[in-house]
Amino acid sequence: xxxxxxxxxFQVLKTGQSMTLQCAQDMNHNSMYWYRQDPGxxxxxxxxxxxxxxxxxxxxxxxxxxxxxxxxxxxxxLESAAPSQTSVYFCARYRAAYEQYFGxxxxxxxx
Amino acid sequence: GENVEQxxxxxxxxxxxxxxxxxxxxxxxxxxxPWYKQELGKGPQLIIDIRSNVGEKKDQRIxxxxxxxxxxxxxxxxxxxxxxxxxxxxxxxxxxxxxKYIFGTGTRLKVLx
Lengths: 111, 113
Known about the structure:
The structure holds 2 protein chains of 2 kinds.
Chain A: E1 4-7, E2 10-13, E3 19-25, E4 32-37, E5 43-51, E6 54-57, E7 64-67, E8 75-78, E9 87-94, E10 100-102, E11 106-110
Parallel strand pairs in A: 2-11
Antiparallel strand pairs in A: 1-3, 3-8, 4-5, 4-9, 5-6, 7-8, 9-10, 9-11
Chain B: E1 4-7, E2 10-14, E3 19-25, E4 32-38, E5 45-51, E6 56-59, E7 62-67, E8 72-77, E9 86-96, E10 98-103, E11 107-112
Parallel strand pairs in B: 2-11
Antiparallel strand pairs in B: 1-3, 3-8, 4-5, 4-9, 6-7, 7-8, 9-10, 9-11
């Protein structure tokens, strides 16, 4: 998956529970991204990180937090999950010259 | 805000025929236009891209065209095969601190054998 691994692959949460989605790249690229994918809405940017230690909000950041502690890893946290956060979550890394590569995704259901 | 419209949302073609998917973007600062193929249960995979200084790019059966004046870009797949069946996404990217991508809503392509 283009050098991006995501864990877990599937997760079911109850409303109000918290969890962290993990993403790691096996390259040494600066920029990493978190997207969510919902039917009929394409991919929407939640947060991104231009470099280690920096993060910025994307289009739909509410209800999420992120952490970029080192160059390899970029995690996404849901502090209090809501049914509206049921989605497929993709992490991506930016390689060079605009090229972006995606991980395999985490399928999250919040009941 | 920035927006990318993609049409059609679904497309069925006979094997061997051509398929065309079109996108329109709103932000004139966009200067990179990738296309992704997403198979069931997998992440999007970059299949071809085009930059703003180029009008057309080909890679075997796949081609992309860009009309910057009209803010249109299109994906062309010739001699379609069943394995081309997937969801295709277009995107428009621009630089704002880092690189930002706005995605279309996807086209489900079905190639009928």
